[in-house]
């Protein structure tokens, strides 16, 4: 998950994710992307949410996208013919075209030890259990609505 | 060690651009960043041609902590100056296929230099109000895929918000009728040993304090939580240990000089440089390279007077 208030859009997650995946720094093809809009004022961090009911799984024409027992959405490169259906259907626009391997890719959580979390300089990124994410979200919402620490 | 970097040389008088490949072997000394350019600067100075240049280092934009460094150099009216700065501009210059940009001449009317994935054009600007002007520049490329450096009110800024260079460099832009440089690129920045590089990044990140940001988009690839992008800091090219360290960091593209929490900077910087280039340079070689660059820098300062 990402705590958006802590993210300054430095882009280190993006640069190093692409390096790990592609062997060179190619931020536009990273599985996590800091998207700037309206000039310098706005930013959005795009990455796979590993949805409970992922639309990319049903959208994939070749059936190479799947959701494992651990909740992580995974994809096999073999068979992907880069039709882009997953990207079109994903509500977050998370899948990205990898021009070197000619396939679409998304965050694979680095096998359970995400690099982006390790290198984020502000601690905005965290890798947590679903229940903990839900708890933090509810707490944050309550704080925003009612004030105070809880 | 063979090291080559590409310089985009733009002449605004003729609106022409050419690419120069710079490189060479030098007793294993690491050559990076503006270290390639002093002969070109000297030639321009001797011909009395004012210029402004920006150089990224071999580590610029790689994602290492503080790898947002770039160096501005310029000369006009008999004055030469160089300054280390940080921002996204250097990284995007590399994504567009170049490590250096050198601009000479003067555009006939207010213009912007547009660099898109290696293609260069000089675009006349029609808008007068700053807001409209920025909107026009943004229309040239897609959001989130470019950096715009503008000259306004005697200062250079990146994406309209962040300081990038001091009044001298802004003056050079104005003198050339160059209102902005827009850089957009999708190319990769090569890293020779990604595994070693990622390990070093994670290790060095541990040295840096985490903190919340105050503005967005804040620092680019920079460690430390409290600062935004820093404006240019003039390089004196003095021969002291501290100044040599600054020169060495500016050659590699690391904006570390203000980060006191990073100890043993040269050793760490060299480890990153070696991982990025696949070289096996030693600290003495980096120091010697910085000493040579500083000597050339002093010579340029002297010529400029």
Description:
The complex is a heterodimer of chains A (150) and B (305). Chain A is α+β, with helices and mostly antiparallel strands and 150 residues long. Chain A has a domain at 12-49 and 93-146. Helix content of chain A is 29%, strand content 16%. Chain A has helices spanning 12-22, 55-59, 85-89, 115-119, 130-146, and strands spanning 24-25, 33-37, 42-46, 65-67, 73-75, 96-98, 103-105. In chain A, the strands form three sheets. In chain A, strands 2-3 form a two-stranded antiparallel sheet. The radius of gyration of chain A is 16 Å and the shape is globular. The two termini of chain A are 20 Å apart. The mean pLDDT of chain A is 86. In chain B, helix 5 (194-205) runs antiparallel to helix 7 and helix 6 (241-252) runs parallel beside helix 7 (265-277). Chain B is an alpha+beta fold and 305 residues long. Chain B is globular, with a radius of gyration of 18 Å. Chain B is 30% helix and 27% strand. Chain B has a single domain, classed as 4-Layer Sandwich (Aldehyde Ferredoxin Oxidoreductase,  A, domain 1), CATH 3.60.9.10. In chain B, strands 2-1-6-3-4-5-14 form a seven-stranded mixed β-sheet, sandwiched between helices. A six-stranded mixed β-sheet of chain B has the order 8-7-12-9-10-11, sandwiched between helices. The two termini of chain B are 35 Å apart. Classes of the chains: A alpha+beta (150), B alpha+beta (305). The interface between A and B is large, with 38 and 44 residues.
């Amino acid at each position: 998950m990402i705590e958006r208030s802590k993210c300054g859009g430095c882009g280190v997650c993006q640069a190093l994710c692409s390096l790990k995946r592609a062997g060179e720094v190619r931020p536009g093809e990273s599985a996590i992307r800091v998207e700037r809009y309206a000039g310098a004022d706005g930013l959005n961090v795009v990455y796979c949410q590993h949805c409970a009911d992922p639309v990319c799984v049903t959208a994939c024409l070749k059936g190479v996208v799947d959701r494992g027992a651990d909740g992580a959405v995974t994809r096999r490169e073999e068979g992907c013919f880069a039709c882009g259906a997953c990207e079109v259907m994903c509500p977050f626009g998370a899948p990205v075209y990898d021009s070197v391997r000619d396939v679409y890719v998304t965050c694979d959580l680095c096998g359970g030890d995400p690099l982006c979390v390790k290198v984020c300089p502000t601690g905005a990124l965290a890798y947590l259990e679903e229940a903990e994410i839900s708890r933090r979200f509810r707490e944050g919402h309550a704080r925003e609505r009612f004030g105070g620490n809880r | 060690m063979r090291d080559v970097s590409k310089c985009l040389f733009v002449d605004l008088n003729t609106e022409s651009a050419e690419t120069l490949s710079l490189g060479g072997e030098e007793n294993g000394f690491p050559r990076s960043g503006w270290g390639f350019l002093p002969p070109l600067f000297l030639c321009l100075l001797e011909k009395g041609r004012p210029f402004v240049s920006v150089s990224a280092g071999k580590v610029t934009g790689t994602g290492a902590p503080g790898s947002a460094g770039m160096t501005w150099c310029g000369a006009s009216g008999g004055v030469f100056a160089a300054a280390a700065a940080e921002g996204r501009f250097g990284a995007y210059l590399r994504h567009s296929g170049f490590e250096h940009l050198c601009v000479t001449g003067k555009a006939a009317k207010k213009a912007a230099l547009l660099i898109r994935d290696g293609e260069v054009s000089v675009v006349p600007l029609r808008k007068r109000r700053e807001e409209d002007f920025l909107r026009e520049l943004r229309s040239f490329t897609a959001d989130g895929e470019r950096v715009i450096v503008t000259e306004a009110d005697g200062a250079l800024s990146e994406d309209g918000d962040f300081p990038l260079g001091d009044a001298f460099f802004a003056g050079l832009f104005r003198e050339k009728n160059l209102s902005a440089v827009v850089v957009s690129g999708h190319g990769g920045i090569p890293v020779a040993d990604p595994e070693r590089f990622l390990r070093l990044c994670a290790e060095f990140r541990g040295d840096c304090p985490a903190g919340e940001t105050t503005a967005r988009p804040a620092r680019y690839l920079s460690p430390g939580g409290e600062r935004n992008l820093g404006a240019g800091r003039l390089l004196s090219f003095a021969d002291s240990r501290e100044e040599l360290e600054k020169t060495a960091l500016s050659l590699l593209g690391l904006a570390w000089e203000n980060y006191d929490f990073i100890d043993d900077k040269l050793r760490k910087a060299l480890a990153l440089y070696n991982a990025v280039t696949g070289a096996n340079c030693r600290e003495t070689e980096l120091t010697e390279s910085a000493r040579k660059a500083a000597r050339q820098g002093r010579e340029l300062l002297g010529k400029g007077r």
